[in-house]
Amino acid sequence: MPAYDGVLQPQLYRRIIFKFRDFAQRGLYDGIAGENPLDSAQKDGFGGYIHVKAIPGASPSLIEQAGFLADRMSVNLELPTADGLKNLAPGKTRDKILTPMRQIQRGIAGQMIKEGMSLPDYGSYPAGGREIENGAVKGPAEKISEEKAVVSAKQRTGPKQQLGRSRYGNFGLRQVSNQRDYFVPAGQSTQIIVGATPESDYQMLMVAEALYQRFGLKRVFYSAYVSVNEDSALPVLPDGPPLLREHRLYQADWLMRYYGFDAEELLSENQPNFNVFLDPKCDWALRHLENFPVEVNQAGYEMLLRVP
Question: How does strand 136-138 pair with strand 131-133?
Fold first, then answer.
């Protein structure tokens, strides 16, 4: 076992990276060919943080094995609608993405119950697979309208915003590294590509909100589309990657998790995209001047969070 002395040896990193690359090239769908790099990391004494990205369609046994060796796992949604996936990533389907995401959620929930932890109020466990498209959640037999899928802020009975805590609860044990007998202790996340397909900010935010509520995600990451190949199916962005748009989505995501905002408060079908010149909270405040000014000595905590 390498001697660390508080610093991870670079050659250990390189050895693990090469094993992962070889593992990925051989493919997950046909089972493990050769040595599992996660086992290699454990055998080599790697005690650092491991984030595993699960490939949609990977076998449940591999998902489970990886979950007990990794700190965090993610199944990247990539594009917010089924149409976007069909056009740019036809090999991926909502079922292939959401099935392992649900398996990871259930594994985390089972670990939390085993450790005597209470499950968050948000996060449902439907018996069948669910499909998320354009912010609406669709079931196997029925289509649930957007109005039913997203409850308005006035009607919602979910938990009130707590200081420094995500309103969607904590799916995970908060214990990371050197605890390989825990299943995904740092929770799961996903990624949405911004600007590769014509979906609006409103659609992406509604999908993110549904994922937080129904799959117990810790984070939704947003990645501005960067063109690396020339193809007629790929968009041409003359102004380059939409970095400011990505930034606004991150700000809005933070407002939903830690400031008590709903997606439909920040955007709507009539206003589907963020104002690039204003941060989302300031933009909301300007559209709701009836709530201001605020007397800070009398206003409640949730209202104070909404002051720009």
Answer: antiparallel
